[in-house]
């Protein structure tokens, strides 16, 4: 009986990971497209030195932001498209090509601004504000994610909400995340915080108050702030501003800012497919087009 139950749990866990693998399946090809568009393999191959190409040298060669390029290269190294190795003096690390990266060398032109912006004349969020059907599509996608992720977060982080009376979900969409949290922790008063056009179609849920506003201006005061899958959409300066507003919203020393986000691990070695599929943590990077 115990073995049968364990097998069922293993199958359910694998199914959950398979879903995430399908959802994020675009990331591999999107990252490879970045390498092709920026001509990264050519820049490394044509570098005058026999040394691995440092991030500074590579960003200069392909005219890309070092901060953005570093994140792309970390993902591509993780996927085995490039190698990251120390320079001869051991004072820095640099990048070298692999047989795979040489195969994707291509004279494709760099496309800027992002295709979505170029086609619609505005970014994704401005477009969603003006097109309610598109906004609804985004909101439902985020709600689907919340239904899968938030119960697991709540189960693994029970102690985080001890002594917490009020929680604000920043960029909470239609309120799915906050609705799950107040059911799991019924002593919490929840606030679902998002832009006016999103709050206009938010769910009416017991224990949750929908509040409209802009996270770049201010965030409602509370004991804790949760921000799930928001920061990866913004650059460093915007993230700093958002996090500062989160900090100001909670009480000093005892307030909590809870971040649920995709990050990329530090492991540099290429993983075989079985290892990559084994854990959700190996799905690392969002690329917004």
Automatic annotation (TrEMBL):
Q: Which residues form the O-methyltransferase C-terminal domain?
A: 115-274
Q: Which family does it belong to?
A: Belongs to the class I-like SAM-binding methyltransferase superfamily. Cation-independent O-methyltransferase family.
**Which organism is the protein's source?**
Arabidopsis thaliana (Mouse-ear cress)
**Tell me, what is an example of a GO biological process annotation in this record?**
methylation
Highest taxon of the source?
A: Eukaryota
Name of the molecule in the record: Uncharacterized protein
* Molecular-function GO terms, alphabetical: O-methyltransferase activity; protein dimerization activity
Coiled-coil spans in chain? none
């Amino acid at each position: 009986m115990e073995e049968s139950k364990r097998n069922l749990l293993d199958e359910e866990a694998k199914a959950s990971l398979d879903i995430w693998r399908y959802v994020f399946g675009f990331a591999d090809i999107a990252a490879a497209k970045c390498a092709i568009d920026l001509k990264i393999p050519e820049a490394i191959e044509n570098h005058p030195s026999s040394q691995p190409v440092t991030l500074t040298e590579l960003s200069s060669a392909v005219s890309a932001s070092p901060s953005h390029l570093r994140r792309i290269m970390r993902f591509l190294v993780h996927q085995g498209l490039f190698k990251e190795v120390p320079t001869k003096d051991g004072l820095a690390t640099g990048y070298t090509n692999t047989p795979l990266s040489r195969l994707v060398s291509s004279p494709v032109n760099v496309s800027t601004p992002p295709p979505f912006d170029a086609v619609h004349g505005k970014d994704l969020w401005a477009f969603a504000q003006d097109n309610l059907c598109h906004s609804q599509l985004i909101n439902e996608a985020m709600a689907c994610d919340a239904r899968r992720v938030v119960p697991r977060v709540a189960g693994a982080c029970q102690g985080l909400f001890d002594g917490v009376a009020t929680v604000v979900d920043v960029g909470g969409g239609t309120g799915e995340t906050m609705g799950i949290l107040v059911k799991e922790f019924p002593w919490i008063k929840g606030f679902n915080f998002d832009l006016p056009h999103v709050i206009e179609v938010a769910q009416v849920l017991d224990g949750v108050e929908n509040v409209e506003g802009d996270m770049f201006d201010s965030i409602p005061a509370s004991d804790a702030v949760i921000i799930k899958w928001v920061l990866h959409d913004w650059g460093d300066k915007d993230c700093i501003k958002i996090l500062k507003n989160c900090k100001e919203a909670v009480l000093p020393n005892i307030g909590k800012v809870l971040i649920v986000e995709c990050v990329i691990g530090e492991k540099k070695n290429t993983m075989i497919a079985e290892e990559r599929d084994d854990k959700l943590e190996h799905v690392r990077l969002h690329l917004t087009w």
